[in-house]
Amino acid sequence: DDNDVIMALSENNFYFYNQLMMYKKDSLYRYDGQRLVGVQGAWGNTSTRSVVNLKEYSICFYGAQGLLTGVYAYDGREQVNISRPIENHIQGISPNMWDKVIAWKEEDRLRMYVGDIVNTDFGINVPNAVITWDYNTRAWSVDPIDDIITAQVKFRQGNVRSTYLGTGTDSVMLTPSGNSFNGQPIPWSFDTTPIYPLSSEANGDFTRIQTLHEN
Asked: What is the rounded CA–CA span in Å between residue 146 and residue 200?
């Protein structure tokens, strides 16, 4: 009884044995059936529906003032912020969404619905944003969609286990499915790192550029 609030319970397998993860709003505990241990340095979880197990990680969203806001992954030892590469977008998530973030898993990808992202300092305005982390490449993407996601659930039909999303318009959608956002085209752009084919002091003309992408 430490005046903290239990937000979610989750089970994951770390180092070949199961642990029950207990997320409080400002702390994190693990229980292996015999010992209850507080995870030192863990920040906790502010959104009950943001907890997802992906491979060896237990991942959640934590909202707070300043740079503490972010997506955090626990690997059996420590809870670390994995969303630094999109920090400017993270800082644009409204505090009103900190307890409403919805997370789900699609194959080896983590997705989180975080509402509108607005960060005028960096010219960022993404409506109804879904942020995605790819486990295999460790790459992030930020995508606008036309729907407000309010819930997610796994449902098995026959031998197929699928993810369904509930929306603010009383619709239920299957994901992933097709190559559009519920029939709407997918906006797409990308940023590169600085490229100096000659040197940082020389100008060059690029006659062509090739970009490879999938779906």
From this structure: 41
